[in-house]
Amino acid sequence: MADYKEIVGTRVKAVSANPSDPSDGQVWYNSTDEVLKYKKAVGGGAWSSGGNLNAGRRSGAHLGTQTAALYVGGLNTSSPGGTDIVESYNGTAFTEVADIPAGKLSLAASGTQTAGLAFGGEPETANTQTWNGSGWTEVNDLNKARHNHMGDGTQTSSLCFGGEGTPHATLAQTESWDGTSWTEVNDLNTARQRPGGAGVQTAALCFGGDKDPATTYSDDTELWNGSSWTEVNDLNTARHGMGGMGSSTRAMGCGGYAGGSNLSVTEQWNGTSWSEVGDLNIARTIGAGAGTQGTGLFFGGWGPGNIEKTEEFTTVSTIAVD
User: Fold this and answer.
1) pTM (2 decimals)?
2) Which residues contact 120 (CB under 8 A, 6 or more apart)?
3) C-alpha to C-alpha distance for 86 and 95, rounded to whole angstroms
């Protein structure tokens, strides 16, 4: 059986006082109290204001963490066909970086702030580009051109699923990226566009979205195990245009649109079911989500009007004793 060092890569540190700001799951030995302690998320949480985008927009691609995120493309008032603007977030403020080669919206992305992948989008395209932290490079296309889809994973190991193809077809197709090319794999059980997503190439979650016809909002959730999708427990609120973040066992979906209204609803997934937690401060749809369930980031969107506001989510945690 593997020990802590084999799993995490370091030994448990011995300290005389608890760390001032431990992360969820961090473990240490308090030599003063002579006890092993760790930080445990106890659920719930709330949204607070972060640094604004320089240009309010919606329907862009998003990737990264709460303190190191990227927002790619999207739609703003000065670029009705889609913008090529890319902004980078450092946990405090957004800074414009190198543009993506062609302006587009409703694309998807995966990876990190310094090693990303962007694919698909509108105008209808199958184009895929890699990001190295300073510039974009075109690589092999998707097999199916699409927009309003979702992507999860890393620059060299990603998943693309759902979306809308030409002519106005809601898609179930899933494609897997190996760092060089895309391969078609097993479809979603329910074709959908504008879903939320979380996870990695071998363990992903797809939730919500629009079924066909596109005005039928979905609460369906599907789990990807690396080879096929399985239907699991539904969202509490059916909707499309959510921001998704986290893993296949600890995900979060926030915002969205249903029934003629933008939503502020936030739900957390525990690997089995969804539960509602603190709402966004601004109801909005087709915004961008990044980070984890415990430290989430949501920015941009439509409110109505293109939104530049950013919100950061913090889970309620406690220090526990083993």
Assistant:
1) 0.87
2) 106, 107, 108, 126, 127, 128, 142, 145, 146, 147, 149, 160, 163
3) 8
Residue reference for tokens 């506001």:
309
**Is 244 within 8 Å of 256 (Cβ atoms)?**
no
Q: CA 205, 209, 213, 217: dihedral to nearest 10 degrees? A: 120
For residue 292, give the amino acid letter.
T
Q: Which domains does the chain have, with CATH numbers?
A: 4-41 (no CATH), 42-318 (2.120.10.80)
Q: Does the bond joining 123 to the residue before it have cis omega, within 30 degrees of 0? A: yes
Percent helix, strand, coil in the chain (nearest 5)? Answer: 0, 45, 55
pLDDT in tens, 104-127: 999 999 999 999 999 999 999 999
Q: What tokens appear for 92 in the block?
A: 């405090």
In angstroms, rounded to a whole number, what is the distance separating the alpha carbons of residues 41 and 55?
34
Each residue's pLDDT tens digit, 129-157: 999 999 999 999 999 999 999 999 999 99
Cis omega (within 30 of 0) for bond into 304: yes
Who's near 217: CB < 8 A, 6+ residues apart?
208, 209, 210, 211, 238, 239, 240, 257, 258, 259
Structure tokens at 307: 């939104």
CA angle 17/40/242 to nearest 5° reads 135
- The β-bridge partners of 63 are 70
Lookup result for tokens 């001032």: 20
* Joined tokens for residue 111: 């990876």
Neighbouring-strand partners of residue 142: none
Q: Which residues of the chain have pLDDT under 70?
A: 1-10, 21, 23-25, 39-43, 214, 317-320, 322
Question: What stretches of the chain show up as alpha helix (H) in DSSP?
Answer: 4-8
How far is Cα 296 from Cα 25, in angstroms, rounded to an integer?
16
Question: What are residue 189's phi and psi, to 5 degrees?
Answer: -70, -30
